[in-house]
Design a protein that fits this description.
216 residues, two-stranded antiparallel sheet, alpha/beta
């Protein structure tokens, strides 16, 4: 096999989480007197973590540090309480994950979603033991595209970057893959357009999960 490890992004790659994230942020915004953001606009805003999402969702004249922290904290609390109302795996993803396990290909999830929320999403949508490792944002630690997070996962999985494919739907994911030395594989079914993935360094873009076997 050309590669023996697959690291997945979560939002927009494994799971369509857009509506639950948007609803959580919009509830926080409207509660504090700010306008809600249309659902489709969130496609270009998510991926950097909840604090950056709050900054981008707020009107420009309201983006003070205090307001961003307040909106972000409330949205995070709401999202933690209800992360799985609309979210579901993309078609073909459960089957792919099952096949990877059956063929003993190491797999992991790396996300800028807070680690406790990420684990709730993965545990709620996939059978136990579907992934060999799961890593979300932790207080005081880096976030994608920091390559150290990938390397931490790979050490735990006993794999190296040259053995590994990083799968994602955003420029953040492609930058993470390139920074860490993994093969940057984009997916077309997520939140960003193909042109964004290509510009960020995607070596290949697939249109369905099963196409990954061409690499493996």
């Amino acid at each position: 096999m050309r590669y023996s490890c697959v690291i997945f992004d979560c939002d927009g790659t494994l799971v369509d989480t857009l509506e639950d994230i948007a609803n959580s942020m919009n509830q926080s915004l409207t509660h504090h007197g700010f306008p809600a953001v249309p659902l489709e606009n969130y496609r270009a805003l998510v991926g950097w973590g909840m604090a950056k999402l709050a900054f981008l969702a707020l009107p420009e004249d309201a983006r003070t540090e205090e307001t961003v922290q307040k909106i972000s904290a409330d949205a995070s609390r709401i999202y933690f309480e209800q992360p799985l109302i609309k979210s579901k795996p993309y078609p073909g993803i459960p089957e792919l994950v099952t096949s990877l396990k059956a063929k003993r290909i190491k797999n992991a999830v790396l996300s800028n979603k807070p680690d406790p929320v990420l684990r709730r999403v993965i545990d709620g949508l996939f059978p136990p033991g579907s992934f060999d490792a799961i890593l979300g944002e932790r207080p005081g630690e880096g976030r994608k595209p920091d390559p150290s997070l990938v390397w931490e996962l790979l050490v735990n999985l006993d794999r190296s970057p040259r053995d590994s494919v990083f799968v994602g739907d955003s420029e953040i994911d492609m930058e993470t893959a390139c920074n860490s030395g993994c093969y940057p594989l984009g997916v077309s079914w997520g939140f960003r357009p193909r042109t964004t993935l290509e510009a960020a360094g995607a070596a290949q873009i697939i249109d369905s999960p099963g196409e990954i076997w061409g690499l493996l």
